[in-house]
Amino acid sequence: MPSFQMNPSRAGLVRRAALLFSLTLACAGALAQTDFDEEFDDQEKPWQEIALQLPPTPQEQNLAEFYLSPTATMKAFVDLKSVTVGTDNVVRYTVVTKTDGGATNVVYEGMRCETWEKKSYAFGRADGQWSRSRRDQWQPIRDVGANRIDAALLRDYLCEGKLVADNGNVRSIIERLKNQRYIDPVRR
Fold it and tell me: What is the CA radius of gyration of the chain?
């Protein structure tokens, strides 16, 4: 069998090329690991609210009444056509309240189940247009007084613990509101 001998200068070149190839693979592996870890590092990314688009003015035929309490002095409705769940996990909807005296209030709101907060985006005017809310900051939801509306929606229809109900399935949420079917009927 003939013996193979490589030129010493060529052998050095092959060794350098092999070393360079090994370093390139090591660097590529380190970069790939960094990208992989960054994709799963959700704690570092701040929550970002999506851009808002106001819904059409609520129509009477699209309103679904929901229960507030035995002592409530008004009726509360959700405009079923306005219910959405954004990629930011905010449930957005229009609430219409009506008093026995005939006063009506229309508010377009968003609810964050994760933090149990709500935000009023706009108020409906008599001419059917929207007026931007001056207090468009996220506020904690409390189950007292006028906030009972928000608490009823959060607990009974829109949120399961700190998650959007039904894995964010809007059709299912709308059906629950339409049929006044609570998330947890035993709690009632």
Answer: 29
